[in-house]
Amino acid sequence: xxxxxxxxxxxxxxxxxxxxxxxxxxxxxxxxxxxxxxxxxxxxxxxxxxxxxxxxxxxxxxxxxxxxxxxxxxxxxxxxxxxxxxxxxxxxxxxxxxxxxxxxxxxxxxxxxxxxxxxxxxxxxxxxxxxxxxxxxxxxxxxxxxxxxxxxxxxxxxxxxxxxxxxxxxxxxxxxxxxxxxxxxxxxxxxxxxxxxxxxxxxxxxxxxxxxxxxxxxxxxxxxxxxxxxxxxxxxxxxxxxxxxxxxxxxxxxxxxxxxxxxxxxxxxxxxxxxxxxxxxxxxxxxxxxxxxxxxxxxxxxxxxxxxxxxxxxxxxxxxxxxxxxxxxxxxxxxxxxxxxxxxxxxxxxxxxxxxxxxxxxxxxxxxxxxxxxxxxxxxxx
Length: 382
What we know:
Order of helices and strands: HHHHHHHHHHHHHHH
Shape: globular
Distance between the termini: 43 Å
Radius of gyration: 24 Å
Number of helices: 15
Number of strands: 0
Strand content: under 5%
Largest sheet: none
Helix content: 55-70%
Number of domains: 3
């Protein structure tokens, strides 16, 4: 992801927006004919304009163009890349343009202008829905386009311009509404944080051996601090974690239950593993298994299982707690610990190390940590 830069506002620009908008519309209309595919390049130039209005118009036009190609199957990966046919060469080029377009939208999430951040986010989210829909239509199995969603989450939690406008859009419009988006946020954010933390640890070990400190290490520390701040601002505002499997009923794509008993369901174990991590198919603790419903439980999709959502929640919080935290962050976490965190953790005892570290911070943080330790001892028999 490139460095975030403030977009210069053009004053007295010679570009006439109405004329450019008409040009964009003409280019978009021309792309109904594949002989005009090179016009995508011209649209892309407008999408990179420093004029927010032009950029806004172009990214929406490109979204309509690429969505149409996607649903027709023109953006699917070509398997034979060594000796592709003429048609496959076009398909490879189209997919490359689409990939570049998604990357550009993610850079707009780092823009200092909310008027570009929010449309970019909403277009990216619509692409998740379109990609998922296309995959499900062609395979007959449930699919969530996490290859699109994961990079979005990374762009969000590493965003130096993560303002209140963007946070509210992410949390209130998406994560607090849709169970699949919230679950995959936990999964993807945990993966990004764990990788960043491991990279920092590896760098530190190397530098300690060399007995010198490089500027790159300081930058990494700053990056981890930024990530911690962004992630906490999201986590502390997520308020819709399910407490019963029956509450898992809102999906940005489709309800996976539609595919549970479909004879044409071709979902593989690897797709389940992507959702569950190392857990495998799990049953809900709140619903005891009997011989009568055993087969039904085995067929239940992972995203409909409460334990899967709790595991994702736990993994995300535990990954977050490894990051460098300020005293203010410790206070925020400890204040919401009892009602917003502990009830949803798969294993509350895993917070013992965090609470011990919190106690060592001193002052008001120590008092809050003692309260948390007391709760673990009394309520969770630790």
